[in-house]
Amino acid sequence: MAAASFALALVLYLGLDLPEASPSQSYAADSDSAVEISYGSVVKLMHERTKFRLHSHDVPYGSGSGQQSVTSFPNVDDANSYWIVRPQPDTSAKQGHAITPGTIVRLQHMRTRKWLHSHLHASPITGNLEVSCFGGEGESDTGDYWM
To answer: Which region is the signal sequence (predicted)?
Structure first.
């Protein structure tokens, strides 16, 4: 099963912009101030050092996959920066079930309903691997799986 891993530099937020939030608070199940993430949670993903937020809108890449572009922007706090945590297809997981460490999830862009997707196309800007948004409710594959 192919699954891309989130870098520890990404912080999960539940639509909160709390300066005291940190990766250890968001990920540590034993922390008194941990934020529980469950299926159906709406999150923003922010790079810890740069404070750039993962952002997408319905504009395709001009090369590579040609799929919906995913970028990061500083201080962006709009509907294009929100993602819904969803389970893999064909699992017994339901909305409201807590996400535990090591769980594979899918992230659905809140506005366009496409999945955060990874594959082997080169990014048109950096040359690293491209991340895009792809598919929808009835269209998903293992490139949409994140751990």
So the answer is: 1-21
Of residues 97, 50, 41, the one with CA closest to residue 72: 50
Mark 11-29 as b/e (b = at least 16 C-beta within 10 Å): bbbbeeeeeebebebbbee
Query: How many Cβ atoms sit within 10 Å of the Cβ of residue 55?
Result: 20
Q: How far apart (Å, rounded) are the C-alpha atoms in residues 5 and 54?
A: 15
Q: Is residue 113 within 8 Å of 68, Cβ to Cβ?
A: no
Q: What is the pTM of this model?
A: 0.77
What is d(CA 73, CA 52) in angstroms, rounded to the nearest whole number? 5
Structure tokens at 3: 């699954």
Return the DSSP state at 80. Answer: G
> Which helix (H) or strand (E) is 25 found in, with range?
helix 23-27
Give the tens place of pLDDT for each residue, 32-62: 667 899 999 999 999 999 999 999 999 999 8
φ, ψ of residue 129 in degrees (nearest 5): -70, 140
Locate the domains of the chain by residue range.
10-28+35-144
